[in-house]
Amino acid sequence: MDRDKPYFFCGIGGSGMLPLALILRAKGIAVSGSDRALDQGRTAQKFEFLRARGIPLFPQDGSGITSPELIVVASTAVEKTVPDIEAAIGVGAQLVTRAELLAELFNAAPVSVGVAGTSGKSTTTGMIGWILHATGAHPTIMNGAVMKNFITQDTPFASAVVGESKVFISEVDESDGSIALYTPRIAVVNNVALDHKSMEELRALFRDFVAKAQSAVLNLDNEETAALADGREAITYSLNNPHAHLLARGLAPRPDGIDFEVYERETGASVPIRLNVPGRHNVANALAALGASRKLGRALEDAGRALASFEGIKRRLEVVGSANGVTVIDDFAHNPDKIAATLATLHDFPGRLLVMFQPHGFGPLKLMREGFIACFAQNLAARDVLIMPEPVYFGGTTDRSVTTRDIIEGVRGKSRIAYGFADRPACGAKLLEIARAGDRIVVMGARDDTLSQFAGELLASFKK
Fold first, then answer.
1. Degrees to nearest 5, angle at CA 171 with 97 and 150
2. For helices 44-52 and 17-26, what crossing angle results, to 10°?
3. What is residue 443's predicted lDDT score, i.e. its pLDDT?
4. How far apart are CA 209 and CA 455, in angstroms?
5. Which long-range contacts (CB under 8 A, 24 or more apart) does 206-214 make?
6. How far are the Cα atoms of 159, 204, 438 from residue 144, in angstroms, in the given order?
7. How far apart are CA 411 and CA 409, in angstroms?
8. CB distance 286 to 127 below 8 Å
9. 331 SS3 class
C-alpha cells in the first residue's frame, strides 16, 4: 500500500470494496470512487455515508480518473470495457484488484486471522471481531457485511473497523481464487462446498490456505474441511464429533437465538453460551469464533460472555417486521448450503414459508442448477412456496443458457410449489396475493442491496 498516493475504487459501494475503502480512509489516505449503483440511483444512503467520510464520488464514466498518480482498485468481476478501467489504462494509472490490496494490508499485520469457507464467513468474522473488542483488544476488522454491534448513528454501514491493536481479522473469499493471496497466522475454515468453483479447485485453494497458516480452526462436521485437519496444528470444532477440541452440547433453539454448552476437551471446561442469532449453523459459527479466540489467548468463559452480546450481521435471518400476522425476513442466503441452513432454522418453529429467492447471477445459476433444485426440493415443506425472479443483472456479458424457469420446473418436478416471474414487482404481487396470517416471507439473495428495500416495501404493503 502506498500511503502517499490517492486511491480510486471502481465499484466502491460493493460489499468487499466499501469496507476496504473505509479502512484506507481511516488511515488518512485520499480515497475517491465510482459505482454503477450510484449512477442508477440505487442505495443513495450508502453513498451519502461515503461522502460524509470525505470520499468524493464520480459517475462510472471515467471522469474521476484523470491522473497517472491514482491507484485504481477494482474487483475481478469488473470488465476491461468499463469506462473507469479504460480511463485508467489511458492515463497510465496503476491498476490493482481489491483482493491484492486487501491481501497486502492483511499480510503486513503482525497477527492476521483469515476467515474462509463457503458459508458463514461474515458472521464468524463479526463474532471474532466482537469477542476481541469486548475483551479489551481493538482489532481491525474487514467484513463483507454490516456488523450490528458496531453500528452507530454516524456509522450505519459498519462493515469495517479500524483498531489500534496488531490484530487484523478479515473475511477471505474463495469465489475468485483470491484466497491464494493471503498468508494468515490463523486460518479459520467453516466449510467447503460447491459455490463459484468446482470442488477440485476449491479443495486445492483451501488446502493451500491452511498450509500457509501457523495454526488453523477447522470444522469436523464438514467432510471437506475435516480432511484439512489431517496432521495440522489446529483447533477443531463440532456439533456431533466427540473428538473435536470444542464440542457443542445441549442445543436449545429459540425463535430469536439458540442456547448451548461448549465443552473444551483439552481442559474439560464447560461454558454455557446464549446466542442472540438463531440456527444450528450459527452454533458452528460461534464454535469457530471461540476456537480463533482461544488461539488469540482469550479465556473460554470471557469469549462466551462476549458472544451473549453479539447482535448479528445485517441480512442474516434479519426480521424486518410483522404486520397482520405476516412476518418478513431478509436473508443473504444464495447457495444451496446457506439456503438449507436458513430453511432448517425457520422450520424449527411453526408457520408456512414463502421464499422469494433472487439468484445472484446467471453464472452461479448455471453452475449450481441441480444443487438449487435439490436444495429446495429437500428443504421446503409441502405447503411452503418458492417464488423466483430472474437473476440479478447489472450489466456486462454473461451466459444466459440457464434461467429461473429451469429451477422452477425442476422444483415443481419434485412435488414442491414454485412460481417464476420475469421481475421482482411480479414476485411481490404474488406474495401479497397468497400470504396469510402465520406465514413468514423470506427474501433471499446476494449482490443486490435493494433486496432489503424490497423486503421493507413488502412489510409496508402488509401494514396497509
1. 115
2. 10
3. 97
4. 37
5. 206/116, 206/174, 206/179, 208/180, 209/114, 209/116, 209/172, 209/179, 209/180, 209/182, 209/184, 212/182, 212/183, 212/184, 212/187, 213/114, 213/183, 213/184, 213/185, 213/186, 213/187, 214/185, 214/186
6. 6, 23, 33
7. 6
8. yes
9. strand
Instruction: Indicate the pTM of the whole model.
Output: 0.87
Side chain identity at 157, as an amino acid letter? F
Q: Do the beta carbons of residue 310 and residue 277 sit within 8 Å?
A: yes
**Given the C-alpha cell 401479497, which residue does it identify?**
432
Sign of CA dihedral 339, 340, 343, 344: negative
Kindly report, residue by residue over 264-302, the tens digit of the pLDDT: 999 999 999 999 999 999 999 999 999 999 999 999 999
Here the cell at position 53 is 467520510
Q: Give 77's pLDDT tier (boundaries 50, 70, 90).
A: low
Helices and strands (H and E) in the chain: how many: 16, 21
Residue found by looking up cell 489504462 in the block: 89
Measured between alpha carbons, how far is 294 from 301 in angstroms, rounded to an integer?
A: 10
> Residue 442: helix, strand or coil by DSSP?
strand
